[in-house]
Amino acid sequence: MKKTTQMITLVFSIVTLSLLIVSQTVYAHGKEKHASKNQKGDITYSRDIKPMFENKCSKCHGAKSPVHMEFIKDVKKYKNDKKGPRMNTYSHLVSFAIWPDAGSLMRALDDGSFTKNKKPGKMFKHLGKSNQERQQNLKLFKNWVGNWTLKEWADTTKDDINSMKLAY
Ligand code: HEC
Rounded to two decimals, what is the model's pTM? Predict the structure, then answer.
């Protein structure tokens, strides 16, 4: 009888110990995966978008451009001056993805894959000189936004917003 109890205790300990080791390994692996994703995989505004924006967009959307509410007061004049609304900071740019100009950034930059008329958005051509460069930069914007929805604010859901990344 005593031997049986000892056996059961031994088997029980071994099983518990193994489970502990397995769970620790899974936990550590998960943490590692997450850390490496944040270091390499996630596109950030400061590292990836800002330099590209300065290169491709800021001559028309930089510090000398009016804020959007000012821009819409006299679109014609600003367009003649080759100026679009100002988007040269994180906050300005995000306001063209979520609010108040939900989906504007995505509609402007899309290559025609998601636009209603299947034509590229007005700003797609500014993404690069070659098709390859345009596609590369479009990919950066897509990964940065996370949820490439072209919806207007009225159709935007809380889920749409929650699934956007827009990391700083
Ligand atoms: C040569 C000047 C020029 C360049 C370069 C340019 N844009 Fe524009 N952009 C404009 C003008 C002008 C408008 C306003 C167009 C209109 O209202 O029809 C505009 C409009 C936009 C809009 C829509 C704003 C709105 O809601 O009306 C977005 C978003 C945008 N641009 C993003 C970009 C991005 C991102 C880049 C760089 C890849 C870029 N643009 C490069 C001139 C430019």
Answer: 0.81
